[in-house]
Design a protein that fits this description.
Blueprint lengths: L2 E6 L4 H10 L4 E7 L5 H4 L5 E4 L6 H11 L3 E3 L6 H11 L3 E4 L5 H17 L4 E8 L9 H13 L7 E3 L13 E7 L5 E9 L2 E9 L3 H14 L5 E3 L1 H5 L3
Parallel strand pairs: 1-2, 1-3, 3-4, 4-5, 5-11, 6-8, 7-8
Antiparallel strand pairs: 6-9, 9-10
This protein binds nicotinamide-adenine-dinucleotide.
């Protein structure tokens, strides 16, 4: 019996790709909802909710999931840090996989970035560059935000160390700053590069997504995995066994 999925954001780019690969992943979209539809009317018969919509929808999705005891796979990005903190505590009350990026390759990039930041140390200036299609509404991407968190954590820095782009007379680069640059254009599905630059050498770790199906397959893999898990907030590293 295919996994019965309620898909929120069904008319969007990701929603459409998830629907197109669901069959090959032993899943079926029994309800595909979008802005203006009533989530509460269709939630009771699904096995799992997959949400790739907009940040404003997340709180309601989590509230209804808790009320109806349904697990959630959450792919939406673009929340503020304060929103994220509030939503994390809501998500932890149900079984929830929340990932800024569901691709296997990017999750490997997370692991490699942590390793590189630890080995290379503070003498290597860290910068993150991402590029996405012209329609993307938030910046930097959820994936870039996660890469930055990994670097900050590894170097015991806080978000005040982040430099979002540079302009004007910025002065010399401070050794503790971590730069982040968001490029937008065309139909780029998602590129991320982490640069560690010292005097004399530079290490660059790059991932390039060329097909949204990688995120869709990852989200569907997470949907199968979350069934039967105890309440808690999980990420793709848990699903892939990378922890
Ligand atoms: P999109 O703009 O193409 O689609 C979003 C869809 O959600 C639209 O159809 C819109 O009408 C709908 N929507 C908006 N508000 C809603 C609401 N309150 N309830 C229900 N539906 C609502 O965007 P997209 O490229 O499909 O991306 C959607 C989200 O997923 C974004 O936050 C994006 O950054 C994120 N994303 C995450 C990953 C990942 O791997 N985690 C990958 C790609 C995109």
């Amino acid at each position: 019996m295919p996994l019965q999925i309620l898909l929120n954001g069904a008319k969007g780019r990701m929603g459409q790709v998830i629907a197109s690969v669901a069959g090959e992943m032993n899943a079926t979209i029994y309800a595909g909802l979008d802005a203006g539809d009533d989530l509460s009317a269709s939630i009771s018969r699904c096995e799992v909710i997959i949400d790739f919509s907009s940040p404003g929808a997340t709180a309601q999705v989590l509230e209804l999931a808790q009320l109806h005891h349904k697990p959630v796979v959450l792919g939406t990005t673009g929340h503020t840090p304060a929103e994220k903190e509030h939503l994390r505590s809501m998500a932890a009350k149900i079984p929830c996989v929340w990932a800024g990026n569901f691709s296997v390759g990017v999750n490997l990039l997370f692991a490699l970035t942590q390793r590189a930041a630890g080995i290379l140390g503070a003498d290597y200036d860290a910068e993150v560059v991402e590029m996405h299609h012209r329609f993307k509404k938030d910046a930097p991407s959820g994936t870039a935000a996660r890469l930055l968190d990994i670097i900050l954590e590894e170097r015991q820095l806080t978000a005040t160390a982040l430099r979002h782009g540079r302009a004007g007379l910025t002065g010399e680069r401070s050794p503790t700053e971590v730069g982040v640059h968001a490029l937008r254009g065309g139909d780029v599905v998602g590129d991320h590069t982490v640069i560690f630059a010292a005097l004399g050498e530079r290490v660059e770790l790059t991932h390039k997504a060329s097909d949204r199906a990688i995120f869709a397959r990852g989200a569907l893999r997470a949907a199968h995995w979350i069934i039967g898990q105890p309440p808690g907030l999980y990420d793709m590293q848990d699903v892939l066994g990378l922890k």
